[in-house]
Predict the 3D structure of the following.
Amino acid sequence: DWVKIKETEAAIEAILFAAGRQVSIKELMISLEMPKEDLENIIISMQEDYKAEKRGIEIIKVEDSYQLCTKKE
């Protein structure tokens, strides 16, 4: 449901921010106790939201990991 997705987005954002490095999808799966496909769908949605909102940060994918970083532009 919508609330659960928003809570998961907040958790992903917090994990990526606190880590300050690339975080593997496996680490996220273990931390959030979610399947890979669900996590990836939520992260893709977050990437689109960040882009649409013209935020100064973005989530990038590096191989099988994700990282929160400032936008290149």
Notes: The chain has three helices and three strands.
